[in-house]
Amino acid sequence: MTAPAILPARGLADRLTGTFWRRPGLLLVLLITPPLLWLGVVYLGSLAALLLQSFYSIDEFSGVVKEEFTLKTYAELFRAQNLDIIIRTIVMAMAVTLACAVLAFPIAYYAARHAKGAWKAAFYLGVMLPLWSSYLVKVYAWKLILAKEGILGWAAEGTGTGFIIDGILSIPGLEGSSLSTSPFGTFLVFVYIWLPYMILPMQAALERVPNSMLEASADLGATRGQTFRTVILPLALPGVIAGSIFTFSLTLGDYIIPQIVGDSSRFIGLTVYQLQGTAGNTPLAAAFAVVPILIMLVYLSLAKRAGAFNAL
Amino acid sequence: MRSEASWGLKLAALGGLLFLHLPILLIFLYAFTTEERSYAFPPPGYTTEWFAVAWNRQDIWPPLWLSLRVAAIATVMAMILGTLAAAAMARASFFGRDQVSLLILLPIALPGVITGMSLRSAFGIMDIPFSTWTIVLGHATFCIVIVYNNAIARMRRLSGGIMEASADLGANSFQTFRHVLLPNLGSALLAGGMLAFALSFDEVIVTTFTAGQQSTLPIWMLNELVRPRQRPVTNVVAIVVFAATFVPILIAYYLTRGGSETAGMGK
Question: Would an 8 Å CB–CB cutoff place A216 in contact with chain B?
């Protein structure tokens, strides 16, 4: 027992280690500063620039951005044509979210409560691969599917079910020469692209429903339907809401899908893109981009009240 | 609870999975079609000539290199920043912790069009010209959270005991990081990096706002989709883009499978 209890510092690294040990806050600050600086400057800075830009206006004659504070640009959002765009986007986002929830439920339920072993892994990969694989390629695939001469039209012709497609295309508001130029096509592609974002949180929520509760429900005489309605559904709801945050938010901002599939009626994202690009009206584009932020803030506060954040 | 699922549920679940996968398979079929003008199904004939045609198209290579370069730089930056953030957030509790985690999550939680438009406004106000770096700036920002999610999940699972043991045995912080933390963290970081690369390589929404006149491979593809020139060549490029995202995802999955933190849960 001749060695001293405290070893002498062997150099700068040892001394620094001692300092970190004595003052753990210092290490924390050193670690968090670079990412915080990046996100603070690049991201929050940009968001601030967006806000600033939205309070500017554009000179109607010269088309030059006037860098003076004004609410005129926001007032333009309330013109009938712009309100139309906002309402159309919100209705589409709600429809997509609802359809995703309905389609996702059986997949999430089966994966969470029935699939075991290799099947469970298959289900997991089966949802994760479409989630992460190329967004643009997936949209493109639907262009192939929905085209008049594409696989859907071919299948409908072969089975004599072409009247279903014609029926959908004759519904007022969904008209088009084929599904790929109808708003219904836009809706289909949105549902397809965002579906995995709904499945994963739903599955996570369903996996947390304890079996004992279902057994208790059955012991107390509930039918399967009653157990589903009064036990499973309320417990899965936070997962559904968590998923809906993604499907809703992503639909609100997307501008690629309505550009490629559909009747080229405008959505918020597409309007932002066109205003800053060809039209050169950056202030109005910025004001339009603030709309989804506001909608999502309201949505998130409602979701928080429903306890969705525990399921994220 | 009944252990056997009803037929209806099985059918609906399987149908849902097929719905998710069949469209992607179709792309592979169309890359071999002899039909150049339309999306006719079934293809009137099959050929492999489009792969050679695509290979010889000079307008595809520069976007491909740009995409690879941007994805590589953005991934490295995101791995450094994401790991630092995860190391700070894993165990510590401090004032404003929730706000910081929200800030990390925000670039991916808000629609891409907002991130893109914000960056575009900032570049405009500060008179920053578009370059490779303006694209990288946007990509690195939304890739941080991907690496962060993977790293922090692994750090939470690591027992704090091994770090203390390393210190007790006389290692300083840097030796502990090099010989204890990094080997344990390695596969999670690599998985995060793979996913970040896949996300960046394929990104188009933010990129259109930060690229100016430059063209990444997804932007090239988007232009072809809006104004098609040689549809089968686009199909071949679609397969390349798909493979460039698919392979890293599979690797990420195998690197982290079996753990509670399997990669890809939080895009």
Answer: no
User: Which of B39, B145, B181, B210 to probe the A interface (max A CBs under 10 A)?
Assistant: B39
Which residues of B fall within a CB distance of 8 Å from A20?
Answer: 173
- pLDDT surpassing 80 at residue B258: no
Of B26, B40, B265, the CB nearest to A145: B26
Amino acid at B250: L
Which segment, B35-39, B69-73, B110-114, B233-237, is predicted with the most confidence on average? B69-73
Q: Which residues in chain B touch residue A7, judged by CB atoms under 8 angstroms apart? A: 170
Summarize pLDDT for B181-238 with one digit per residue, the tens: 888 888 889 989 998 998 899 899 899 888 888 889 999 988 888 887 777 888 888 8
* A70-109 tens-digit pLDDT: 888 898 889 888 999 999 999 999 999 999 999 999 999 9
Question: What does the block give as tokens for A135?
Answer: 């967004």
Contact yes or no for A149 and B40 at CB 8 A: yes
**DSSP 8-state symbol, A61:** T
Cβ-nearest to B253 among A13, A27, A125 = A125
Contact assessment for residue B68 and residue B193, using Cβ atoms and an 8 Å cutoff: no
Topology of domain B57-257 in CATH is MetI-like fold (1.10.3720)
Q: How far apart are CA A124 and CA A207, in angstroms?
A: 13
* Chain B CA closest to residue A20: B173
The mean of the pLDDT values for chain B is 84
- Number of neighbouring beta carbons within 10 Å of residue B45: 9
Alpha-carbon distances, residue A24 vs A19, A49, B85, B166, B184 (angstroms)? 8, 35, 15, 17, 22
- Predicted TM-score (pTM) of this structure: 0.85
Contact A276 B109 (CB under 8 A): no
Gap between the terminal Cα atoms of chain A: 54
| Interface predicted TM-score (ipTM) of this complex, two decimals | 0.82
Q: Residue A17's beta-bridge partner residues?
A: none
In chain B, domain spans: 57-257
